[in-house]
C-alpha cells in the first residue's frame, strides 16, 4: 500500500443490529429505490455519460439481460 501511494480512509458503519433493523423497516414499508432511467447493456457508455452529466434524481440502471 505504501509503495502505491494509496490513501486509506476509515468509514463509519452501523452495527449488525442496526442493519437488520434497517432492513426490517424497508420491508415493512415496502420501500423501493427511485429509478431515473434504464439502459440496455449495449448502451452502457451512454448510461455512464447520462449519470455524469444529467444529475439524475434516482438510480441509473444498466440491464444485463
What percentage of amino acids are in beta strands? 15-25%
Would you identify the regions where 5 or more consecutive residues have pLDDT less than 50? none
Number of strands: 2
Rg calc: 18 Å
| SS element count, helices | 2
Q: Let me know the largest β-sheet.
A: 2 strands, parallel
Q: What order do the helices and strands follow?
A: HEHE
- Helicity level, as a percent range? 25-40%
Strand order of the largest sheet: 1-2
Mean pLDDT: 92
Shape assignment: flat
Structural class: alpha+beta
Record keyword descriptors for this entry.
65 residues, alpha+beta, 2 helices, 2 strands, 37% helix, flat
Describe the structure.
By secondary structure, this protein is of the alpha+beta class. Helix content is 37%, strand content 17%. The protein contains 2 helices and 2 strands; from the N terminus they run H-E-H-E. It has helices at 16-28, 44-54, and strands at residues 35-40, 59-63. It has a two-stranded parallel ribbon with strand order 1-2. The chain is flat, with a radius of gyration of 18 Å. The termini are far apart.
